[in-house]
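note to self: dont lose this again. the chain is below, predicted strucutre after it. 196 aa total, dont forget to put it in the shared folder this time
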Amino acid sequence: MKNIVVLISGGGSNMAAIVQAAQHGHWERRLGARVAAVVSNRADAGGLALARSHGIAAHVLDHKPFATREAFDSALVRLIDAQDPAGRPALVVLAGFMRVLGADFVRHYQGRLVNIHPSLLPAFPGLHTHARALAAGCRFAGATVHLVTELLDQGPILAQAVVPVLAGDTAQELAARVLTQEHLIYSRAIEGLLRV
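---
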């Protein structure tokens, strides 16, 4: 079985879309894959309850008690790898996980670590993407699914979706329109990786 571990920090809407795609798309039967666990760095992340309601293991590893990023990353690796009987999950999926992960963590999951970013990379890496797109006068915005590398938001692109920027858009309105596309392309990109 190809086990997928999803990392979240909040409500988990992308995680929910992935779980729904896995269940409705019968990934377990067709691809030999399943969402095995959800891990959050925040105990109050709404996505944890959602995961549990779908029978998915949900874990919390609060980053605050750790003295260094490296110490947190090491503990996170141990927790993630424990979610697979062989100690090697097929994919680690970042779905609104609001922590920058260090180079050792990224190298450990090289080729198996996936992220979704709310811009058309390489444009607007990092935070505040929608406000930056509006300030730049962009006519289009979107989302990008990419493999994670040591360089922030610069890994190989797996999928993108484009949405128009409408006259009078606020950052929140644009973000909502982009998020609907994120929910579509992320699960498709993950399914594509599982087929390899």
